[in-house]
Here is the input.
Amino acid sequence: MQLWLAAIEDLEQSGLETTPVPSSFPLELEKREFAYQFWNNSEGTQSEQGRWAKGPSMDGKGEFEYVANPQPLGTESHPPQPDPKLHGTGDVPHNQQGNGYSAAPLVERII
Here is the structure.
């Protein structure tokens, strides 16, 4: 972790970037209420012990907060069906039997 912090510091001193990256991102669009939260998405609470879960942030602009049981923030989304020319998997009828061809499945032909 300290290596990354040193690398970021070197980049900032060279004038290449500052945090947040990209530094051109408008801070008024940043969701500040979530910017320093660590959401536990694992079993157990070991992640609560990390530097990323509590204490002052590395950029000095916030305080890390551990969220033990995060909840979804919006409604469940459903992506649009892909264009078949893009080799996406579209809706497959659930009542389809066999392998999708007109021939009966192998098991039915044997019996």
In short: Residues 1-27 form one domain. Residues 53 and 66 are 5 Å apart (CA to CA). The longest strand covers residues 63-67.
